[in-house]
């Protein structure tokens, strides 16, 4: 019997589901042991049965539930809970689900400031109030999945590599274990390092005309960080290359941005990166900001808006 698979997407961009399609020929093999019973982004399936205009979420029973995206509205929360109820095993699918992901950058702002920026700034009509009809109510913050429901398996990545999606589902079907690497992108990086990351000022790769720092004619290249480019490799979980075991951005001549999240699930990429910079004698006061070190992992309360200062203070 194939395993029944259901999928739902919360505060997400659909990239994780596209990664399922990116399996290519392996998708046909996958469909020999997986039966997709619900996955609105890839097939015509609905949350509600629509009978009598019912808006009650109703999902088919499944062995495995893939949930992509973080939780930012009451609707996301309702869907996440409905998936938990209807699926035996829940996979937090992608870094939005495991750590908040890009949407959790919103945690740096108060909700009313964000709404004001979207609905009441130059270029938009002045609104007396923010939309509330039909629009789902926002939660106070953007949450990773396990902050609200029990999660059985974490599959990080923005998006997760197709090889990992395949292997995770195959392992579940075969009742075998499947472990992601618990090492950093640096641990598997081919760059040459001399341990002298003595750069006084970090450079922003995309602002420089010579940002392509590889020389294709050489077999090895010098570590980005030691050249003064901010590379999140030291504090990011390895594995984004899937079965090739070659970090995708590094091989494309771009410093790692940190999309696989912290090396250990509960890690703090910002804190760990500041430590890594400091231990390489890199002047952290030269950084224009550090919040973006949590651009993929700002859930779990790691990113919060600054407290408002009362006028009387
Ligand atoms: S993890 Fe990345 S690809 Fe997946 S939903 Fe979030 S932003 Fe999109
Ligand atoms: S900092 Fe970046 S370039 Fe340097 S070794 Fe680590 S992953 Fe490679
Ligand atoms: S190199 Fe870093 S940012 Fe790029 S895909 Fe891998 S983990 Fe993500």
Low-confidence residue ranges: none
For the record, the CATH architecture of the largest domain stands as: 3-Layer(aba) Sandwich
Shape: flat
**Topology, number of strands:** 7
Q: CATH homologous superfamily of the largest domain?
A: NADH:ubiquinone oxidoreductase-like, 20kDa subunit
* Amount of beta strand: 5-15%
Write the element-wise H/E pattern from the N-terminal end onward. EHHEEEHEHHEEHHHH
Sheet/helix structural class: alpha/beta
Strand arrangement within the widest β-sheet reads 2-1-3-5-7
Q: Helix content range of the residues, please?
A: 10-25%
Average of the residue pLDDT scores: 87
List each distinct ligand once.
Answer: iron/sulfur cluster
Q: Span between N and C termini?
A: 66 Å
Number of helices: 9
- Domain count: the total is 2
Short account of what is shown:
The strands form 2 sheets. This protein has a 5-stranded parallel β-sheet with strand order 2-1-3-5-7, sandwiched between helices. The protein is 24% helix and 12% strand. With 313 residues, the chain is α/β, with parallel strands linked by helices.
